[in-house]
Specification:
Distance between the termini: 41 Å
InterPro entries: AAA+_ATPase (IPR003593), ABC_SmlMolc_Importer (IPR050093), ABC_transporter-like_ATP-bd (IPR003439), ABC_transporter-like_CS (IPR017871), ABC_transpr_FbpC (IPR015853), Mo/tungstate-bd_C_term_dom (IPR008995), Mop_domain (IPR004606), P-loop_NTPase (IPR027417)
Number of strands: 18
EC number: 7.6.2.9
Number of domains: 2
Strand content: 35-45%
Strand order of the largest sheet: 6-7-8-3-9-10
Order of helices and strands: EEEHEEEHHHEHEHEEHHEEEEEEHEE
CATH architecture of the largest domain: 3-Layer(aba) Sandwich
Keywords: ATP-binding, Cell membrane, Ion transport, Iron, Iron transport, Membrane, Molybdenum, Nucleotide-binding, Transport
CATH class of the largest domain: Alpha Beta
Number of helices: 9
Enzyme class: translocase
Helix content: 25-40%
Protein name: ABC-type quaternary amine transporter
């Protein structure tokens, strides 16, 4: 899906990237997302399944009509512009390459639609394939390409139209883990060189953290948090985001170093705060004991029960219930020495210095 480049901002308009408020009503679901993206910036729409990410992307592409709001690109209103007339390039999750065309002709398709001669379009396509490291595969049809190669052909096809808005829908989802690592690094380099607006839709936090300059987290059709990857990782504001970045997250009322949670437990922090706050700490900050510890310097101590155990990278993650539901990471050896199993009673400790409290 590509558009033409004949859409220009009116005289006096400021070429300021994307300015949108996407309102879409579909049955009982309502999307209402404000989105501003500067030229040269990569923004990732991140959220759980059903949050509205793909609906937002389709609205930007013109494939789903807006129920309200607005959509401006470089000062030009696009609300009523048909998809084929928008200066937009889309890389779909399944790439949607034409199976009967070579890589070269797949990429040349967009320039041909924009009025280039066959020779001009093929020359532009060859240049883009070379830029993306595919000069040796110009004559290959999609079935002969690896997943990573097909992804780069799809990207070249989108970029060959010189779009002012590049949309990427789960661009790495179809790749295996090893290929994904390599292609993610390549894609980051290409996006860094892209001078217009790029919007990435993904549910994968690592893709978002690596590829995007800024994250916009969507839940239930609304933006719940936005900021740089570092800001989001350090200060999550919903349980979904905390789970994404691997943190235990709680909300309570602060009085000095003490935070009292709604259901009773108290946490001690190093920050001095007052009023509603979040408190977060990583599962690796939790130390488990089978007996109540004596002489521990940890200010936070709770009696818990092991609800479940699972492998998490090279560690074991324990899901704990009890006085304070939380996740704890420990080594396989430590889990064995503690004889952890579902139903086992444990004491969990966290040092105040390993917590992070911040205002709601």
């Amino acid at each position: 899906m590509t558009g033409t480049q004949e859409q220009h901002a009116p005289a006096g308009a400021v070429a300021d990237g994307l300015d949108a408020r996407l309102v879409v009503d579909r049955g009982g679901f309502r999307l209402d997302v404000a989105l501003t993206v500067a030229p040269g910036e990569v923004v990732a729409l991140l959220g759980p399944n059903g949050a509205g990410k793909t609906t937002a992307l389709r609205a930007l592409a013109g494939l789903t009509p807006l129920s309200g709001g607005h959509l401006r690109l470089d000062g030009t209103e696009l609300d009523r512009t048909p998809p084929e007339a928008r200066p937009v390039g889309v890389v779909f999750q399944d790439y949607l390459l034409f199976p009967h065309l070579t890589a070269l002709d797949n990429v040349a398709f967009g320039p041909r639609c924009q009025g280039a001669t066959k020779a001009e379009a093929r020359a532009q396509a060859a240049e883009w394939l070379d830029r993306l490291g595919l000069a040796a595969h110009t004559g290959a049809k999609p079935r002969r390409l690896s997943g990573g190669q097909a992804q780069r052909v799809a990207l070249a096809r989108a970029l060959a139209t010189r779009p002012r808005l590049l949309l990427l829908d789960e661009p790495l989802a179809a790749l295996d883990a090893r290929t994904r690592l390599e292609v993610r690094a390549r894609l980051r380099r290409h996006l860094a060189d892209f001078e217009a607006v790029a919007v990435l839709v993904t549910h994968d936090p690592l893709d978002a953290m690596v590829l995007a300059d800024r994250l916009v987290v969507v839940e239930h059709g609304r933006v719940v948090q936005e900021g740089t990857p570092a800001d989001i990782a350090r200060r999550p504001r919903t349980d979904y985001i905390a789970q994404l970045v691997g943190l235990n997250l709680y909300r309570g009322e602060a009085d000095g170093h003490t935070v009292r949670l709604a259901d009773g437990p108290v946490l001690t922090t190093t920050e001095v705060l007052s009023g509603p706050v979040f408190v977060a700490f990583p599962p690796g900050a939790v130390t488990l004991h089978r007996d109540r510890p004596t002489g521990s310097s940890a200010r936070n101590l709770w009696r818990c029960e092991v609800a479940g155990l699972e492998t998490h990278g090279d560690q074991i993650r324990a899901d704990l219930t009890g006085e304070l539901p939380l996740a704890a990471d420990l080594t396989t050896v430590a889990a064995a020495e503690l004889d952890l199993h579902p139903g086992a009673e444990v004491w969990a400790t966290v040092k105040a210095t390993q917590t992070h409290a911040y205002p709601v």
